[in-house]
Amino acid sequence: MVRRRFIETTTSRLAIWARRVALFSLVATFVAIIVVRSGALDIVPALSTLAGALVLAIVAILLAFGAGIAIWFEGIGGAREAATALLIGFALIGYPLYLGISTYHLPAIYDIATDPIDPPQFSAIARLRPRDANPIAYEGLYAAEQQEAAYSDIEPDDTDSSPQEAYNAAMKVIAKRKWRVVDARPPQSAQPPLPHLVDARTPMTAAERDGVIEAVARTPILGFLDDVVVRVRATADGSRIDVRSASRYGRRDFGTNAARVRNLIADIDTVLATPVPEPVPQKKPPPAAKPAQPVGKRASAKR
């Protein structure tokens, strides 16, 4: 009878700890995302938890590399544990690393407006913002210069649609995106449009009012709250749509607000360009024919 000998292979302690740290960072990341999206805690502690989880992911990667060196030269086990740690670690830091590399050239601003000279104002949202959030006022000329240098395509949207049509299109797009509408005031304009409405910055008269929509949007992954305001103003040829998007936290938005403004205007133009189907008039059904009276009854009635 042949006896089989089992040789125990020593597992690298670095590999074991690398996998433990990676798994802990994975759990901490998911907890931080859930806390941020649910609003259970303040944003600062939640972001601190997320930052700590990403740091642990980097530590797990370093431990996995160290374990790989020990496994290669000493011939010990632990390759599976080290590979698991590397996979989890790079999965966690992959998107933040990509985001930082792809947007490092963008300016450190968090407020984007199509009209930096006369930006739409936050009114209802200003009363809802926490005290530790970014200032509600537009930063002025410095931010305008930075925005023009990085996002020169962000500009007001002049359309030949009426202010009410533009307002309805903006409301339709915002509802489709499931943003939380804080305040919505439809436009009021004199009928017919007054000839002095040539410049969109002309002050409104008593019979005129800008259409304003204030809403709160969320970022896709972490669910950060960003504030958006849409202003619809009557012009001589139709209406002018201005959009402003601002992050509540952070001095850099990584291009999120500019992309939101750009996509929102494009979607509004798509809705305005889509012809509204005319209602088809319903045909009235023909009057029901009276039932014929039996011959026998008619004859008996004559008698």
Write a structural description.
The protein is of the alpha+beta class and 303 residues long. It folds into 2 domains: 13-102; 111-273, Kinase associated domain 1, KA1 (TATA-Binding Protein, 2-Layer Sandwich). It is 44% helix and 13% strand. It has 7 helices and 6 strands, in the order αααβαβαββββαα. The longest helix has 32 residues, at 43-74. It is elongated and about 95 Å long. The model is unreliable at 193-198 and 297-303 (pLDDT under 50).
Mean pLDDT: 84
First-residue to last-residue Cα separation: 123 Å
**Count of domains:** 2
Rg is 32 Å
CATH superfamily of the largest domain: Kinase associated domain 1, KA1
Largest sheet: 6 strands, antiparallel
The proportion of residues in beta strands is 5-15%
What's the CATH class of the largest domain, please? Alpha Beta
CATH topology of the largest domain: TATA-Binding Protein
Query: What is the N-to-C order of secondary-structure elements (H for helix, E for strand)?
Result: HHHEHEHEEEEHH
What structural class do helix, strand and pairing data support?
alpha+beta
Q: How many helices does DSSP assign?
A: 7
Helix content: 40-55%
Spatial shape: elongated
The appropriate CATH architecture of the largest domain is 2-Layer Sandwich
